[in-house]
Amino acid sequence: MHKQKGPIGVFDSGYGGLTVLKEIVKELPQYDYIYLGDNGRAPYGIRSFETVYHYTLECVQHLFRMGCHLVVLACNTASAKALRSIQQNDLPHIDPERRVLGIIRPTTEIVGNYTKSRQVGIFGTSGTVNSQSYPIEIEKFFPDVTVYQQACPMWVPLVENDEYHSEGADFFINKYIRQLMVQSPDIDTIVLGCTHYPLLIDKLQKHLPPDITLLSQGPIAAGSLANYLERHPEMEARCSTGGSRTFYTTDDTETFDRQAGIFFGTSVNSRHLEL
Predict the structure, then answer these.
(1) Is 194 a catalytic residue?
(2) Full pLDDT tens readout for the chain, 275 residues
């Protein structure tokens, strides 16, 4: 049905998904990628399920129109609030041969392999935490693991305003760490359930007990995508392999390019997408 090969789409509500794309490109450099950041309507974390679903579906359809057969939602909030509806209700009507993958399931499939105490913590946005997606998914794979969650509403603004190196960042990082660890001092593994949070790893390690394992989603998502393409050669055959990276934002391109470099690790030259 799909003779024309196309790039792999990577979607996020803003910049955070670039930390995932960075790791995917490192793992699978041969493919073409289109990144779409819906910065004009970010943040998603504070929005309702219905709004996040509507925004995410709209962006996924744009990526389909750009030729993507496979789209990765590199956004925890979109994965929590929109992925299942898109997979079950929309794809069968839009095109049953296209696929949309999320970022939460790959993490929850492996988290139990890291914890010895069977006590796991989640740092996330309010939207991700309120969705209960992590406890629900972890329960499926590791029913003996107890999950404790902590919303960190100040962390994304700290990162996006380039304040994450400041002393003020230490205050808010330490605050949420204390609020999580008071729930259970036996937590030995913590998932960074927001793609902005890898930029805070140095500060997090400074304030956390040294024996705690931090799981960042970029490398996990990259390994999961590589495994998916290996298991689905029919989809792999539809992914073009020119090694290109194209970036779109629904907001101002100059601002996006300036900020995106922080997350992606190299300079970015984006195009504007009008929704």
Answers:
(1) yes
(2) 446 999 999 999 999 999 999 999 999 999 999 999 999 998 887 888 999 999 999 999 999 999 999 999 999 999 999 999 999 999 999 999 999 999 999 999 999 999 999 999 999 988 889 989 999 999 999 999 999 999 999 998 899 888 998 988 999 999 999 999 999 999 999 999 999 999 999 999 999 999 999 999 999 999 999 999 999 999 999 999 999 999 999 999 999 999 999 999 999 999 999 98
Catalytic residue among 59, 68, 152, 194: 194
- Which is the catalytic residue, given 68, 75, 152, 239? 75
Of the candidates 10, 77, 89, which has an alpha carbon nearest to the alpha carbon of residue 41?
77
- Indicate whether this model's pTM tops 0.85: yes
